[in-house]
User: Fold this.
Amino acid sequence: MTEQDLSRFLHKVNQLQQLVQSLEDDEQRRQSLAACTNHNQVVALARSWGFEIARRWGEPDSCLCDDNLLEEALPSKGYETERILLEGDHWWLSLINSNDASTPSGEWMSQETFEWVVLLRGSARISCDNPSEEIDLSVGDHWFIPPHRRHRLERTDPEPGTLWLALHWRA
Assistant:
């Protein structure tokens, strides 16, 4: 492990310890965290409380150039990365970078928040439940996802990948 990786690892452990302590001191905060349904929601909620727990110690810096969203580093094949660009009390704007990714077979995503996405690069296919629907998106297409709408990512493009801008908010 490099010194930089060790430092990043120790910082994350410290942030997690502080987060745990804050949960012990605040039951409402604990309930908010318990209501999260996926890792990205946990990371976003923790970030809104001032804790940075997202990046793993061995991950490279996620962006080659902070000023150009289209130069975001591509994740490994079959994966997605998400980086929060801006956030407020009840909303956050994130950049999602997908490389030949899909939701595991038989799994569905459903979230507590509203979400609006627009594709900046590539294409994607999404399946929805109740009502059943197939959605194909390409560059410039956008899609609105209300809370609790079950959906799954069927595919995104391989390299250079699919790049999404996603706005999440709570009512």
Remarks:
- The chain has two domains: 1-59, 68-171.
- The first strand starts at residue 79 and ends at 87.
